[in-house]
Each structure stands twice: as C-alpha cells, then as structure tokens.
C-alpha cells in the first residue's frame, strides 16, 4: 500500500510537478502562491502540464493496443455476439477509443453500415466520448481511484442500458438510408511491424492533441478562475449540494458547450473544491462530452429526429440519475 500510495502521488497526482511549479511561481515569477494571481498561475501551469503528460502517455499506449484491432476486425468480433452481450462489448470498445463525440460518429456510421445492430453502435457512441482509459487515470489524479472507477462503471451502465433500449425499440427505420448503403470493405489489414505500431501511436498522440489542446487550455483557464476568483458562497448559492436543481442546471449548462472530457475535468475539479456536489460536477462533464450541441447536429445528419430525441432523452435521464445518486452517496467515495 505504501508503494502504491507513493506511485499514485508521484505518477498520477505528480506532486513533484506541483512542488516544481510552485517554486517557479514563487522564485522566478515572484508571485505569492497564496494570492489569487499566484494561485491561478500555479493552477493553470500545473494542470496544463499534468494533463498533457498523462494524455500523451495514455493515448500512445491505448493507440498501440488499438493497432491490433482495426475496424474490420472489431466489427467481426462484435458481429459474433447479440443482445445485451453485444451492447456490453460495444460499450467496452468505446472505452479504448480516445475520441470526442464528433470523432466517434464516423465509426458509428461504419459499424452501422457494416450490419451491426444500431443498439450496439449507440452503446459505443455513448461510451466513447464519455468513458475512456485516459479519463480514468485523469479522474484518479484529480480526485481518487474510487471516484474514477465509480464514474467508469456508471458510464458503462448508461451506455449499455441506452443501447439496449434503442435496440429493443427497433428504431432502425429512423437511421438515414444512406448509412446502410456504404458497407465497410472486407479486407485484411496488412501486418503491422512494431515500428509501425509505434508510429501509429505517435500519430494518434499528435492528431488528438492537435484537436483538444485548445479545449484543455480553456477548461484549465476556467477552472483556475473558479478555483481562485469566484467566492465559494457565490458558487454554493447556485450549485450547492443543498440545491435540488443543481444537477439539472449543470446538465443544461453543459449541453451547448463543446469539449472533451480532458477540457472539462479541471472545471469539475474547481467546482468540487468550491463545495459543489461531486454528482453535479460529473453531470456537467457528462453533458458536455455526450450531449454537446455540435455532436447532436452532426448526429442529426445520419439519424432522423425521432431517434435523435430518444437518444438525447435516454442519455439526459441517465446523467440526471447518476448526478443525483453521486450527490447523495458521493461522500462515501471522497
């Protein structure tokens, strides 16, 4: 336990980086660490560096593993199963695809056009932006392992239940016809060498960092502002745990935004620090990543309005239930 605790502090929470950035702020920038400006600068530099380090290592590792499972092979594996088992596998597949919701939609189209049940592809579509291996470690680095694991579990449950409901409702007719007219090619991927897989991992790191870096900077900036400039009583008055509407409000606020989980984590961290319920903060994160307006607009191009409304309704109700449950019992995880 002592060794695990040390590794957790140094590798995930990066206490060495926290102390190093504090020394930089105090000795080089000549700012008081306890002041609002000094605290904000420290929060911004520390969180940005930590997130980019963890993100790069994790994306590379996940992509290296992913190189063994190209879409054709993945589709064949999923095609062997049906029912809830297939939904579970679809949701689990989403956890190893480090994509935002908009990036997941092309794979959703590919799987659907290749003949996979839409319930399975919707389980994938829900879990892919919501839960991935990188988010587990980042949540653990900000909060703790209990919250990180609980978040992953409820995210997967939401993906499986959502996909199962859509599957049982037989809503295939509400998918645009052109989606079924573009089947994936039946071809084996050329054998990749170890160097090919390493290059693929590097490419994925560059490609994803290029897509998310701005959202991370914005998210950390907002988190720094909340953490050091907005009084705790102001946030508590709006989103305090005693406010019955806090989860619903956080969910509604998150929907118009567009970011991935890496950009929303620093905001959630600052909100919880200010006394906001962990369920309220997680509901905000989940709404931004799974129900963002841009991703809904993109999804509308491949499904009809009724299916889009059903999908958004299922995910919204799931997020609300998860948020209120975490607010009620989250103290057991902190």
Strand content: under 5%
Number-wise, the strands total: 0
Largest sheet: none
- The low-confidence parts are 184-188
The N- to C-terminal Cα distance equals 18 Å
Approximately how much helix is present in the residues?
A: over 70%
Sequence of secondary-structure elements: HHHHHHHHHHHHHHHH
* Overall residue-averaged pLDDT value: 82
Total tally of structural domains: 1
SS element count, helices? 16
What is the approximate shape?
A: globular
The whole-angstrom Rg is 21 Å
Structural class: mainly alpha
Family: Belongs to the UPF0718 family.
Main location: membrane
Transmembrane segments: 43-65, 86-109, 115-140, 147-166, 212-230, 242-259, 271-293, 305-326
Keywords: Cell membrane, Membrane, Transmembrane, Transmembrane helix
Structure commentary:
The chain crosses the membrane at residues 43-65, 86-109, 115-140, 147-166, 212-230, 242-259, 271-293, 305-326. It is found in: Cell membrane. Keywords: Cell membrane, Membrane, Transmembrane, Transmembrane helix. This protein has one domain (2-181, 194-332). Helix 7 packs antiparallel against helix 9. It is globular and about 60 Å long. It is mainly α and 334 residues long. Helix content is 75%, strand content 0%. It has 16 helices and no strands. The chain has helices spanning 2-12, 15-28, 36-66, 71-79, 83-95, 101-113, 118-130, 133-142, 145-168, 194-228, 232-239, 246-254, 261-273, 278-290, 293-300, 305-329.
What key attributes describe this structure?
334 residues, mainly alpha, 16 helices
């Amino acid at each position: 336990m002592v060794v695990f605790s040390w590794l957790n502090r140094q590798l995930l929470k990066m206490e060495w980086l926290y102390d190093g950035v504090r020394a930089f702020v105090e000795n080089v920038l000549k700012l008081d660490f306890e002041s609002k400006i000094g605290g904000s600068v420290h929060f911004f530099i520390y969180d940005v560096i930590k997130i980019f380090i963890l993100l790069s290592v994790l994306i590379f590792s996940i992509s290296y593993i992913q190189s063994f499972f190209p879409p054709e092979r993945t589709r064949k594996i999923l095609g062997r199963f049906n029912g809830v088992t297939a939904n579970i596998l679809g949701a689990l597949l989403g956890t190893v695809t480090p994509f935002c919701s908009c990036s997941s939609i092309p794979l959703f189209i590919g799987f659907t056009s290749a003949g996979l049940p839409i319930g399975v592809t919707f389980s994938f579509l829900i879990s892919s932006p919501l839960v991935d291996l990188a988010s587990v470690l980042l949540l653990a680095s900000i909060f703790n392992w209990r919250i990180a694991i609980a978040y992953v579990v409820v995210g997967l449950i939401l993906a499986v239940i959502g996909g199962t409901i859509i599957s049982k409702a037989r809503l295939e007719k509400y998918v645009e016809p052109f989606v079924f007219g573009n089947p994936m090619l039946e071809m084996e991927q050329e054998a990749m060498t170890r160097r090919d897989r390493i290059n693929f991992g590097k490419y994925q790191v560059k490609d994803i960092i290029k897509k998310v870096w701005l959202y991370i900077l914005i998210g950390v900036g907002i988190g720094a502002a909340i953490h050091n400039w907005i009084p705790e009583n102001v946030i508590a008055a709006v989103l305090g745990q005693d406010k019955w509407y806090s989860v619903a409000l956080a969910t509604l606020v998150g929907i118009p935004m567009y970011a991935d989980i890496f950009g929303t984590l620093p905001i959630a961290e600052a909100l919880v620090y200010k006394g906001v319920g962990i369920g309220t903060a997680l509901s905000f994160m989940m709404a931004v990543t799974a129900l963002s307006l841009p991703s809904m607009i993109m999804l509308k191009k491949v499904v009809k309005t009724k299916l889009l409304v059903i999908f958004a309704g299922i995910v919204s109700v799931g997020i609300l239930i998860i948020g209120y449950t975490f607010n009620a019992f989250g103290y057991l995880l902190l």
